[in-house]
Amino acid sequence: MMTTRRIHNPSSVKRRPGLHQEILLTLVLLLGAALLFGGVLFLRFAEQSLLNSHLQLLIQATQGSARDMARVNDLSITQPLPPQLQAELAARSWWIYDRDLHLVGAVSQDGNEPISPTRLRGLLQLRDNLLEVDWPGLLGLVWSDETRPNAIVAVPVGATQQQGALVIRYSLEPIRGRLLDAMAWVLVYALGYGLVLAASGYLLLRRNVIQPVKSLLLATERVSSGDLEASLPEQGPAEIADLAASFNSMTTALRHSRKQTEEHITSLSETNAALEKAQDELVRSEKLATVGHLAAGMAHEIGNPLGALIGYLALLQNELPDGAEQDLSRHAAGEAERIDRLVRDLLDYASPGQADPHPVEPWKVVDETIDMLQAQGALKGVTLVYDPQEDFPLVAIDRHKLTQVLVNLLLNARDACGENPQVRVFGRVGEGQVILGIEDNGEGMTPDVRQQLFEPFFTTKPPGQGRGLGLAVCQRVVAEAGGRITVDANPGAGSRFSVLLPIVGAKHG
Questions:
Q1: Residue 16: what pLDDT?
Q2: What sign does the dihedral 59-65-66-68 (CA atoms) show?
Q3: Would you say 328 and 298 are in contact if contact means Cβ atoms under 8 Å apart?
């Protein structure tokens, strides 16, 4: 059954708005709403104040006109509207009624119908000069261009309607214009003041909130990538400072935990190395015990008849005349001696003789060993490179055992060389130890060969030329002296064996 996997593509995810965008938008909305609400209240109050004061002015102007007409004492004359009323108070029409409220004169610039006598009589009886106000309200001023605000004022001519009544219709367009101008200025003020407040609030929040949050985000990313040295300045408002202090405490705890973890890993690595070394020593000990039992059995079972066989062959060689029989007996004696040497090598590996670890000067032993092998012709044809050393520190090892180790390593280096054989011998002093090195220019060895090099009976030499016990014996001798043998070899690059022996009196970790 085939399944379809949906691959998550981070680039396809819509990015969320940042904290600074959210804060800026919130500030603009809140401040805009607050300023607009305040502006509306201000305009409403200004509207009522202007309208009431203007209406009072209209009533006073109408009453003044009525007194003037009463002095003239002629209500039938029609004339243009008084210039003061027309120019300053925007009077549009006026009507004159006699004492019986019959229309006796009218001046109208906008074609409005006169007020009915019934309505006028009720107005005069109530002594209410304001007959009608056509005002669209604050929102109507903005959205309604067709509505023309007007006010109709009626006052008696003469005392207690003795002569008649005067009705004037006024336009409230000037009030409307003033309120619209005030509204525009309020909007400009709200916008400007809102922008200033939003910018100031945004800068303040950016410094005290947004920037610390960004710093925390960057520091968190550094911590997630493994950098535990990240820290934040403990400054700003109390909550931000406490957050930075908590973050720094967290990174300090993480660093301490990492240090403890590294120490535990180091301790475990050292313990693992010690266990591996102990395991190797245990395996080597088991091999030594096995070879020891084998050697002891061979010594008892083979040693005595082999000794007798060698003795009989020696007697036989003395009795036989020169010839084929003499050669056969000599070859038989040689093979018997090979068996005897093999038994002795096994005994040396399994249970070496008691050593006498007196302090010796190691380079003198090197010189003596080289002189001995050159005298025997063992290094014939080999170019030996070494620099004589003096004043080497003393090491504690049996002199003959050290000679045995050096002979084995030098002969192995000779056998490993190919054409133009060259063996280099060097020595130096390290930290609390002497290092004796033997290096050849042979073909080197593979990692597998290097890993099995000190195993008993392992050899790379042809059959009959090596028994695979020489390096194992050398390693045991050096280990009993508190040292070790290291090998540095790669295919095609030669091999270098280094004998590391502790200096007498040196402290070891």
A1: 63
A2: positive
A3: no
57-71 residues labelled b (16+ CB within 10 A) or e (exposed): ebbebbeebbeebbe
* CA dist list (Å): 213 to 18, 236, 369, 501: 11, 11, 76, 62
Q: What is the pLDDT of residue 160?
A: 53
Does residue 167 sit within a domain? yes
Q: Which two tokens stand for residue 134?
A: 């056509």
Question: Are residue 140 and residue 242 in the same domain, yes or no?
Answer: no
What's at 61, amino acid-wise?
A: A
Q: How far apart are CA 279 and CA 453, in angstroms?
A: 17
- The pLDDT of residue 4: 43
Q: Which long-range contacts (CB under 8 A, 24 or more apart) does 100-109 make?
A: 101/164, 101/165, 104/75, 104/76, 104/164, 105/75, 105/76, 105/77, 105/78, 106/78, 107/78, 107/79, 107/80, 107/81, 109/81
Q: Using alpha carbons, list the distances in angstroms from residue 456 to 21, 345, 471.
A: 78, 11, 8
How distant, in Å, are the alpha carbons of 86, 477, 495 from that of 433?
124, 16, 21
Q: What is the C-alpha to C-alpha distance for residues 241 and 212, in angstroms, rounded to an integer?
A: 9
The count of other CB atoms within 10 Å of the CB of residue 424 is 17
Instruction: Provide the 3-class DSSP secondary structure of residue 458.
Output: coil
Residues 53 and 78 in one domain: yes
Contact 469, 346 (CB under 8 A): yes
DSSP state string for 271-335: HHHHHHHHHHHHHHHHHHHHHHHHHHHHHHHTHHHHHHHHHHHHHHHHHSPTTHHHHHHHHHHHH
Kindly state whether residues 30 and 141 are assigned to the same domain: yes
As for how many domains the chain has, the answer is 4
Q: Residue 13: its pLDDT value, please?
A: 46
Q: State residue 171 phi and psi, 5-degree precision.
A: -90, 135
| Residue segments in the chain with a per-residue pLDDT below the cut of 50 | 1-13, 77, 509
The verdict on 77 and 171 lying in the same domain is yes
pLDDT score at 265: 92
Distance (Å, whole) CA 321 – CA 328: 12
Maximal C-alpha separation, the chain: 194
Q: How far is 468 from 477, CA to CA, in rounded Å?
A: 16
In a domain, 202, yes or no: no
| Integer CA distances (angstroms), 448 to 277, 279, 453, 491, in order | 18, 19, 9, 11
Q: Are residues 383 and 455 in the same domain?
A: yes
What tokens were used for 433?
A: 């130890």
What pLDDT is attached to residue 11?
Answer: 47
Distance (Å, whole) CA 135 – CA 153: 14
Exposed, middle or buried, 155 (CB in 10 Å: 0-12/13-18/19+)? Answer: buried
Residue 85 has a pLDDT of: 66
Q: Residue 152 has what DSSP assignment? A: E
